[in-house]
Design brief:
It is a single chain. The protein is of the alpha/beta class and about 450 residues long. The chain has 2 domains: about 10-100 and about 300-440, EreA/ChaN-like  fold (3-Layer(aba) Sandwich), CATH 3.40.1660; about 180-280, no CATH class. It is built from 18 helices and 12 strands. It has helices at about 10-25, 35, 40-45, 85-100, 110-125, 130-135, 145-160, 180-190, 195-210, 220-240, 240-245, 250-275, 280-295, 310, 325-330, 375-380, 390-395, 395-405, and strands at about 50, 75, 105-110, 170-175, 300-305, 335-355, 355-365, 385-390, 405-410, 415, 425, 435-440. Strands 1, 2, 3, 4, 5, 6, 7, 8, 10 and 12 form a 10-stranded mixed sheet that branches. It has a two-stranded antiparallel sheet with strand order 9-11. Helix 5 packs across helix 7.
Length: about 450
């Protein structure tokens, strides 16, 4: 239960606001718990109202982002992988940050290797190729949507006629597949005249075949030996760096050294899932590493990170830590988070019934939010769409007390079993610096 604050004169404005709030309710409206309702006046005072359609947001609406626009990395979350408003908002925010704060890289919770094919088209301004590349190369339905397609085509068109320095980039940070990594590195090495091609072919062939079988049958000793061969190949690349750079370029060498690193990352993620060892959240750890690497590879160009709320949050308890947690450990002053939340509406997700998938479909939540949740409070403001700084809320005693008691918020990933009460997660004010809230949402439009 929420703790009741002791009364003092500082609460008088809130008491008057509560009297007005309850007097305006009709008999058939659901009455809020008085303690929950006591949070509404200060929320209304601090929030930034926004249009429900992100494409109607003006540059002036983004004043709430300006104080953190000097951060090298901005994490943009989502509380479902299938909400059109979240995707469109992130596109609009990226455009604002590109045009006003010199951000240049959009890093996605998407496969690193697949992104390189799309990045090539984005750099060349070939927007017409984007739908085909998305259909052929993308692993996940979550990004194979009209909303992401429109974003990538905008990035392609933005790059036309611009210098290399001024272009924007699309990159993946995820490490769950070795579909493309061994092949990409093999192709690179075979354009050179290095002495260890035969060894490289053997290691990369093993990496591809073992990854396709998810390392089934590998003992811990065998897997450790395999990683040793990956590391030996890396040592060979580094030892021949000057030769490889001379035959290709410094950037090509750096990129393909990272591709080998991704090959190793994917192997670790797959192997530990296969043996059901979840003591380390390798996936988030390595997605954070890949995001930080982009600051070096793109020579300090600022990065916007697109991923689920759970990943971008500063959460040490998400396995052994989320992307955001790992980034803040490595770059404590260089990362800020923007979570996205909603209460009701439509979204795309894989259905589940009795622990069995029922296919990709559009889902609807039309029930009232869970009592005393952050979602319930946001749902009962007079503004259906808004941005809010968590620190601005914490300045108010009633919000500081509320957060101290613990609360929850609605957060859905790629699957949904039709019971929203199963998808309320613990909220802590350290998770996100800012939040954008949509009271009612629509589903993304996927394509093959």
């Amino acid at each position: 239960m929420l703790r009741r604050p002791s009364f003092h004169l500082g609460y008088l404005p809130y008491l008057l606001a509560l009297v007005l709030f309850f007097s305006c309710q009709s008999d058939d409206e659901i009455k809020l718990d008085p303690e929950v309702a006591s949070l509404l006046p200060s929320l209304e005072q601090e929030l930034v109202p926004l249009e429900n359609d992100p494409f109607l947001w003006s540059d002036d609406d983004f004043a709430f982002l300006d104080p953190v626009a000097d951060k090298p990395i901005v994490g943009l979350g989502e509380s479902t992988h299938g909400t059109a408003e979240f995707f469109n908002a992130k596109r609009r925010i990226f455009r604002y940050l590109v045009e006003n704060h010199d951000y240049k890289v959009f890093a996605f919770e998407a496969d690193f290797g697949e992104s390189l094919y799309i990045e090539e088209a984005v750099q060349a301004g070939r927007s017409g190729e984007i739908p085909r590349l998305m259909s052929e190369k993308m692993h996940f339905w979550t990004w194979r949507t009209r909303e992401v397609r429109n974003l990538l085509q905008w990035m392609s068109e933005y790059n036309r006629g611009k210098s290399t320095e001024d272009k924007v980039h699309y990159m993946g940070v995820d490490c769950q597949f070795n579909t493309y990594h061994p092949q990409l590195l093999n192709q690179y090495l075979h354009t050179t005249d290095i002495s260890f091609l035969e060894f490289a072919d053997e290691v990369l062939t093993e990496a591809k075949n073992a990854s396709d079988k998810r390392f089934e049958g590998y003992s811990r000793t065998e897997f450790t030996d395999y990683l040793g061969r990956i590391d030996a190949l890396q040592d060979s690349l580094v030892a021949q760096q000057s030769t490889l750079v001379a035959e290709t370029s410094e950037k090509e060498f750096e990129l393909h050294l990272r591709i080998l690193r991704l090959t190793r990352q994917v192997s670790e993620v797959m192997y530990h899932r296969t043996i059901e060892d979840y003591s380390v959240n390798y996936r988030d750890k390595y997605m954070a590493e890949n995001t930080a690497w982009m600051l070096e590879y793109f020579e300090g160009k600022k990065v916007v990170l697109w991923a689920h709320n759970a990943h971008i949050a500063n959460d040490p308890n998400y396995g052994s830590g989320s992307i955001g947690h790992y980034l803040l450990q490595e770059l404590p002053n260089d990362y800020t988070t923007l979570g996205f939340m909603f209460a009701q509406g439509n979204f795309t997700a894989v259905g589940y019934d009795n622990d069995q998938p029922t296919g990709l479909k559009e889902h609807t939540i039309d029930t009232v939010p869970e009592k005393e949740s952050l979602t319930e409070i946001f749902h009962n403001t007079s503004n259906p769409t808004f941005a809010i700084s968590v620190d601005d809320l914490r300045k108010h005693t009633e919000w500081s007390d509320f957060f101290g008691e613990g609360t929850k918020y609605l957060s859905i990933g790629a699957v949904f079993n039709g019971e929203p009460e199963n998808y309320y997660r613990s909220f802590h004010p350290a998770l996100y610096d800012r939040i954008i809230y949509f009271d009612n949402t629509t589903a993304t439009q996927t394509f093959r």
